[in-house]
Amino acid sequence: MSKNPSHTKNFSANGRWRAPRAVLLLASAIGASIAGTVILILGTLVSRIQRLLFLQNQPRSLNQTEEELLRGVFDDSLALDNIRIIEGRSGLFGVNSRPFTLGNTIYMKAYTAPEILVHECVHVWQYQHFGPRYAAEALGAQLLLGDSAYNWKAELARGKSEWSEFNKEAQAQMIQEIWMQRNSSAAHQHDELAAATLKSLRTRKNTRPSRSL
Question: What's the rounded Cα separation, in Å, for the pair 63 and 183?
Answer without folding.
Answer: 23
